[in-house]
Amino acid sequence: xxxxxxxxxxxxxxxxxxxxxxxxxxxxxxxxxxxxxxxxxxxxxxxxxxxxxxxxxxxxxxxxxxxxxxxxxxxxxxxxxxxxxxxxxxxxxxxxxxxxxxxxxxxxxxxxxxxxxxxx
Length: 120
Fold this sequence. Notes:
Layout (H helix, E strand, L loop, with lengths): L9 H18 L4 H9 L5 H7 L5 H13 L3 E6 L5 E6 L7 H22 L1
Antiparallel strand pairs: 1-2
């Protein structure tokens, strides 16, 4: 749990903003974490991943997979043969997101309940 600090120096504030910006660049957006979750659930081929993520287009999925590979979260393996099979898998580095995902799952569920309660 992050302890709330009332008075940050400008340098500390800038450092935190930079860190959050770096994190959002690597895993932010509508699809990246969903792709990671789909891979965690055992989907490894492009079409499996696309079917697991409602609403993602093939073009966007291809782009997100490239970004995640460049950032070290996934590994792409091409199996030559007939037919050629391309598989994606999470790298050990992706495990560094476990606490982030757990926190997002919990917060997302609580937020959904909060919104539902406000609509009653």
